[in-house]
Design a protein that fits this description.
single chain; about 290 residues; alpha+beta; Double-stranded beta-helix; 8-stranded mixed β-sheet; 3-stranded antiparallel β-sheet; binds succinic acid
Length: about 290
C-alpha cells in the first residue's frame, strides 16, 4: 500500500517499521488510523519517535485499535487502569519481559496489540528485540507445518507467575522484584487452550504462537514430551534473521501485534533506570 498521510520506513531490521508524520497525542483522523492499521498488519511492529504522551494520550491512541484490556499482575498508573508502569530502578536486578514471549497469551482472548511508550531509558542498553513469527512459520518445512496444523497448546500464567513459577524463584533470590509482579494467585494457576500456530484475522497469515514463557504443554501430551517441540519452535523463530533489535529514546512509542511477533526486553543496563508505560488492546479468540 502507498500511504498518503504517514511515511513508513522499513530500514529498521527484518521486522517492523518506523512511522513518521503522525502526532499521537491528538485524535487520529480515520484515514490516518487506517494507514497505521495497515502498516501495523504489514510490518507487525511500528515505532513512532519524538512523541509526547501522558498516560491518557497513550490510552486514547491505543483505543483507536480496539477495547483496552487490564494486565492481571501489576498495579496500573494512578487513575489510568489500562496503563501499567514498567520500571526498573538502578539497583534492581530483574526486568519485566526479559525472555522471549508474546504478551499474556494465557488469556482467553489475548491482546492483539501492545502499545509501549518510553518515558525514561538508559543511554545504552534496554533495547527490545522483536522476532517475526510469521516469516519463521512460513520457513518451516511443509512436513512440520502439516504436523503442527490443528495442534492445541495449554497456555498458562503459572510458568512465570504461579506459585512454582519463574518470578517466585526469582523473588527468593531477588526481593527487589517487589509486589508489583505478584497477586492474582488463583488466576496465576489457570489454563486455556490455544492453537500452537494461529491465523491472523486480518491478513489470513499463519504464525508460530506457542512459547516457553506461556505454553505449558501440548494438549494430550506431557510437559516433558511437549517441551522439545515448543523449544524448537522458539529457537527457530528467534534466529537472528527474524529479529530486529530496537533502541529506544525517551518519547518513542512502539505498537506491536502479539499475533505475529514475539519480543524480549534486554536486561543489560544495571545501575540505570528504565521507565515505560504499557497498554494492551484486546484481541480475539486465537484460531
Ligand atoms: C514487555 O514485555 O511487554 C515489555 C517490553 C519492554 O519493556 O521492552
Amino acid at each position: 500500500m502507498s500511504y498518503q498521510h504517514i511515511q513508513v520506513d522499513t530500514a529498521v531490521g527484518p521486522v517492523g517499521a518506523i512511522v513518521r508524520g503522525a502526532d499521537l497525542s491528538k485524535p487520529l483522523d480515520d484515514a490516518v488510523r487506517e494507514e497505521i492499521r495497515d502498516a501495523w498488519h504489514t510490518h507487525h511492529v511500528l515505532f513512532f519517535r519524538n512523541q509526547s504522551l501522558a498516560p491518557a494520550d497513550q490510552a486514547a491512541f491505543a483505543a483507536h485499535f480496539g477495547d483496552l484490556d487490564v494486565y492481571p499482575f501489576m498495579k496500573a498508573v494512578d487513575q489510568h487502569p489500562n496503563v501499567i508502569p514498567i520500571i526498573k530502578e538502578p539497583d534492581a536486578k530483574v526486568n519485566f519481559g526479559g525472555g522471549w514471549h508474546t504478551d499474556t497469551s494465557y488469556l482467553e482472548r489475548p491482546p492483539a496489540a501492545t502499545v509501549l511508550y518510553a518515558v525514561e531509558v538508559p543511554d545504552e542498553g534496554g533495547d527490545t528485540l522483536f522476532a517475526d513469527a510469521t516469516a519463521a512459520y512460513e520457513d518451516l518445512s511443509p512436513g512440520l507445518r502439516r504436523m503442527l496444523d490443528g495442534v492445541v497448546g495449554i497456555y498458562s500464567p503459572k510458568i512465570v507467575h504461579g506459585k512454582d513459577g519463574a518470578y517466585a524463584k526469582l523473588k527468593a533470590s531477588s526481593p527487589d522484584l517487589g509486589p508489583a509482579y505478584g497477586g492474582n494467585e488463583a488466576f496465576a494457576e489457570s489454563e486455556v487452550e490455544h492453537p500452537l500456530i494461529r491465523t491472523h484475522p486480518a491478513t489470513g497469515k499463519k504464525s508460530i504462537y506457542c512459547g516457553r514463557a506461556h505454553t505449558h504443554r501440548i494438549k494430550d501430551m506431557t510437559r516433558e514430551e511437549s517441551m522439545p517441540i515448543i523449544t524448537f519452535l522458539n529457537e527457530h523463530l528467534t534466529q537472528e534473521k527474524y529479529v530486529t533489535r530496537f533502541k529506544w529514546e525517551p518519547g518513542t512509542l512502539a505498537m506491536w501485534d502479539n499475533r505475529s511477533v514475539f519480543h524480549y526486553a534486554m536486561n543489560d543496563y544495571d545501575g540505570k533506570r528504565r521507565h515505560m508505560h504499557r497498554v494492551i488492546v484486546q484481541g480475539e479468540l486465537p484460531i
